[in-house]
Design goal:
Keywords: Signal. By secondary structure, the protein is mostly beta strands. It folds into two domains: 253 residues, Roll (Lipovitellin-phosvitin complex, beta-sheet shell regions), CATH 2.30.230; 158 residues, 3-Layer(aba) Sandwich (Protein Transport Mog1p, Chain A), CATH 3.40.1000.
């Protein structure tokens, strides 16, 4: 009797164990949409170490070391699809925290004479409500209530963004240990590469239980970003909650190598990223009413950026094609430099500067403005092609002078002469405040630039002067 009972128990236990193995071996189905728009609390921590590659002129680079830490916490709800592929991935986000601290320290012989640069960037309270939209080049953000800055959109470019992680999930059921190659756009989106050359990104269902599934990620994405060659190697895991049909956690390592670009330094760095997602019982400020008010297509101007030169009392509103490059706000020569990028290539450079104020209703005499242009260009100037005053509704007076000439670059073997057009603007407010702009563009690219110089100038606002933000390195 005992032997029969023992056999029965043993046989039953074997069936249970076999059943468990069969359950684990079942194909796993993943869900990429969220029709119910479940609210999630998302927390992400990033730690980065590496070397920014800065130009020292004459083909040389200046060695530096960088460390950075970032922390993000926000409530998130999915939004209706805006199209196919990356465009289908949209979310509303309410940030509690978005903060990055970085330290760049020079190396080499000159290091003792150069101070380290410490930067802290914090998302301001008026920009905490964000709409995130998938693109093949990453996740774009805008704030429905206020224009963002270049600094804040860079801050919110989250490595391991939940929308990009969702893009990696397989479209059909997969078995444990089965691998798949995500669509090329999904790897491009995760790596935030603008123009892709090659992706070797591979995902594998490493393990699964009745409640969770673990996906391993490995491979690289190669292409261009902001006109610079870039390669991003990725390694890590994604945990998927099968009961809630959602990504619950991710641990990723990004290894980034990029050359020096027109608007950014080169990079050789490693980022460690950890993201956690938990469902919430209540959506907080992201109510159904708030989500229903967000249009499928972003309103005109939603992706515009603002740039504030506080010490000058000057503000610009511009498209994201204009990249802030560098500025000297409180020391001579005072200048803020922007570069216009189009399809990964630099089209033009804009130098903006304040001019000493004039008597209310007055401005720098036009003859003096033209003479200053001739003096500045010197032998580079061939001719003044046009002089005109623009009609501006704001009451600001805007004068434009277009000059043609040539710019000579000394190459390693010979000089290169580039036909160049300079477009100057003198802007004067009724109060007597003044500013000047000069746009430098290769003459053959003037048509490609179109009216984007004038649009930038027309966005100029004279504001109350205030001190520069001491926390942020310009």
């Amino acid at each position: 009797m005992m032997s029969r009972v023992t056999l029965r128990v043993a046989f039953g236990a074997a069936l249970v164990l076999a059943g468990g193995r069969f359950a684990l071996a079942e194909a796993v189905t993943f869900k990429t949409s969220d029709e119910s728009s479940t609210p999630y609390r998302v927390s992400t921590r990033v730690k980065a170490t590496g070397k920014p590659i800065l130009s020292a002129g004459r083909g040389k680079t200046a060695p530096h070391v960088m460390t950075a830490r970032a922390e993000f916490a926000f409530t998130e709800r999915r939004l209706p699809s805006g199209g196919r592929d990356a465009l289908s991935l949209r979310a509303a986000r309410d940030f509690e925290l978005a903060r990055m601290e970085s330290v760049v320290t020079p190396e080499g012989e000159a290091a003792p004479n150069i101070p380290k640069a410490e930067t802290t960037v914090i998302l301001p309270q008026h920009l905490q409500f964000i709409v995130a939209e998938g693109r093949t080049s990453g996740v774009d953000c805008y704030c429905p209530t206020s224009p963002m800055t270049r600094e804040t959109i860079d801050l919110l470019e989250l490595p391991g963004d939940p929308l990009a992680l969702t893009a990696l999930l397989p479209p059909k059921s997969v078995d444990v240990d089965e691998s798949w190659s995500p669509p090329e756009w999904a790897g491009q989106m995760l790596a935030a590469i603008e123009a892709i050359e090659k992706s070797t990104l591979t995902c594998r269902l490493a393990s699964a239980t009745d409640s969770t599934a673990t996906i391993s990620i490995s491979g690289s994405v190669k292409g261009q970003r902001d006109g610079a060659n870039c390669e991003v190697t990725l390694q890590g895991t994604i945990n998927y909650d099968r009961a809630k049909d959602a990504v619950s956690q991710a641990k990723l390592t990004y290894s980034v190598k990029s050359s020096i670009g027109a608007v950014s330094p080169g990079l050789d760095l490693v980022m460690e990223v950890e993201t956690h997602r938990q469902t919430l019982e209540a959506p907080g400020r992201l109510s159904d009413k708030v989500l229903a008010a967000i249009p499928i297509t972003a309103p005109a101007g939603a992706f515009d950026l603002v740039y504030d030169a506080g010490p000058w009392g000057i503000r610009l509103r511009h498209s994201r094609e204009w990249f802030f490059y560098q500025a000297t706000l409180e020391h001579s020569p005072q200048v803020a430099i922007f570069r216009l990028m189009d399809k990964g290539s630099i089209i033009a450079q804009c130098n903006m500067s304040p001019i000493a104020g004039a008597t209310a209703g007055q401005h720098v005499p036009l003859d003096q403005f033209e003479n200053d242009i001739k003096t500045s260009l010197g032998a580079r100037l061939d001719s003044i092609r046009a002089k005109e005053q623009l009609n501006v509704d704001t009451g600001m007076k805007v004068f434009r002078v277009i000059a043609d000439g040539k710019h000579t670059i000394a190459g390693p073997k010979e000089k290169v002469v580039i036909p160049t057009t300079w477009i100057y603007y003198l802007c004067a407010a009724p109060s007597g405040k003044q500013a000047s702009f000069v746009f430098a563009v290769e003459s053959k690219l003037v048509d490609q630039m179109g009216s984007r110089d004038e649009e930038l100038v027309r966005s100029l606002q004279f504001t109350a002067q205030r001190a520069a933000d001491a926390k942020t390195t310009q």
